Structures are given as structure tokens and as C-alpha cells.
Amino acid sequence: MANLLIEPERAVIADLRALWEEEKNSDTPITPRAFSAAMALLDYVVRVLGDMPRPWLVPSSEGGITIEWLRDDRTVRVVIPPTDDQVDYIYERVGRESDIKPLSESSVVQSLRSLILMP
Amino acid sequence: MPETDVAGHPNPNIYRAILKRSWCDVRSGRVSSEAFKLREMESGLSVLKAGGCSTDICLAKLNQCFGEFVLQTASVKNLGLRVVDDDPNAPDFSENHAEIIGIPTNPTTLEEMKQVEDFASNLAAISVLYYDRYGKYT
Fold first, then answer.
1. Number of folded domains in chain A?
2. Is residue A6 part of a domain?
3. B132 CB near a chain A CB, below 8 Å?
4. Mind listing the pLDDT tens digit for each residue in A95-118?
5. What is the ipTM of this complex?
6. Whole-prediction pTM
7. Residue A96 near residue B114 (C-beta atoms within 8 A)
């Protein structure tokens, strides 16, 4: 009989599922589009970076999700809107200086490496 | 519409309803910038001029509200934003309601989205949990 090893679900993925469930009964639940995009992104980031600081997952008032990593005065914030007609983006902030760019999986990894995971 | 603080209200603070439990981090007490983003049809961020909600009464008349954040009106103005009272002639006028004005509405460019994030970050940074309706943050 095959010996099947099932890897335990990463904490951040479990957090996202819990938020999805919690928001289901709210006035503005997380949209399937936002949930799927957030899940795909977090899965990619976990696979590439392995263990990393747990992000703060926050629902928007319209059904989107914000994924935010914080370290000291540095922020990497991924904003995933509820619908396809809005733009996903990454917002970075160090102190009072900020920058914004369109979202891609590789740019999130790059931002995390340079702002959050740096020694 | 008159500026809220110019109108001589006795309370120098304004109060923002907490629509989502996760808008305040239980462990750190940090306030999320998501609490300060406009919805698609909004021209300003709704705030109350006086707190005083209870478990049974939501002054903002929301179906779901986890409490209130408090902000100093002067600190909001220092960010380059305005706080204005409701228009007394508006059909939905409320004496206890005001709006934070000056945040880009329906942003379409990355520069406008950056302004939205900057304002939301700065507003979150000057906000403090004021009322915890369900004891979720203790």
C-alpha cells in the first residue's frame, strides 16, 4: 500500500480559509475572485520563500482582501479588490516614504525579500 | 457644508465604525488601513461626531458593527483632509454625522491609488480603539 504523506496546511493558508468562513455571513462577504487570487498568491509565496512572517489578512468593506506584512516601520501591502475590473497592486512603505506597483507574484517575493526578510 | 471643527462641536474627536472584526489586530492593537478606504459610491468617509454606542445601540445604524475607532479631528486636518458636517438640507441629514473629505474617489491610476493608501495608512496610524462592542479585542 502506498505510503501517502499529506503535508499539513501552512498557517497562513489556514488563516485565509478561516477569514473566508468568518466573512461568509457578513453584509459584504469576500468574493470568490478575491479569495482565489489571495490563495494563489499566498501559496506561491509560501512555496518560494518557505517559512516567513505571518501576514495580517484583512477583508475590505466591499469584498476584497488586503494581505499585509509588517516589520518595524516597513510595510508590504497587497491589495486584492473584489472584482476583475479593479486593479490588484502592491503598496510598499518605509517610514513616510511609499511606492506602489501592479501586482505580480514575483514582485511580491521581491518586495518581501527587500523589506521584510532582510537581515 | 460647514467644517466640523469650525462649527464649534464640544467634542474634538470623531469616531469611525468598525465594520469588520479584522480591522483591529487583537495582539498588537494596530488599526488596519482598510478601515479608512472609501466604498465605490462614497464621496467621503463617514464618521460620528460623538461616540456613545452600546451593545444594543449602533449610532451609525449599521447591521454589523464591532465598535468604534476614535481620531482627533485636528490630527485628521493635519493630514490635509477636511472634516465636514452633513448638509442640513440633505434628506439623510444627521446632526451627529460628518465626513472626512479629500481622499481620491474611485481611483483609476496608480498615483491615485497610492494617495488612497497613503491617506488610509496615515488615518489608521492616528486611530485608537475606542469602543469594543463584543469584547473581541481584549
1. 1
2. no
3. no
4. 999 999 999 999 999 999 999 998
5. 0.91
6. 0.92
7. no
Nine-digit cell at A61?
468593506
Grid cell in block for residue B48: 460620528
Q: How remote is the C-alpha of A48 from its chain's centroid?
A: 14
- Answer whether residue A1 is part of any domain: no
Q: Which residues in chain A have Cβ-Cβ distances shorter than 8 Å to B63? A: 27
Distance CA B88, CA B131 (A): 28
**Which residues in chain B are contacts of A59 at CB distance < 8 A?**
20, 22, 34
Q: Give B8's pLDDT tier (boundaries 50, 70, 90).
A: low
Range of the domain at A77: 11-116
- 3-state SS track over chain B: CCECCCCCCCCCEEEEECCCHHHECCCCCCECHHHHCCCCCCCCEEEECCCCCCCCCCCCCCCCCCEEEEEEHHHHHHCCCEEEECCCCCCCCCCCEEEEECCCCCCCCHHHHHHHHHHHHHHHHCCEEEEECCCCCC
CA closest to A78 among chain B residues = B117
Alpha helix (H) residue ranges in A8-96: 11-23, 32-49
> In this structure, is residue A16 part of a structural domain?
yes
B18 Cα to chain A: minimum distance (Å): 10
Instruction: Determine the Cα–Cα distance for residues B23 and B36; give it in Å rounded to an integer.
Output: 10
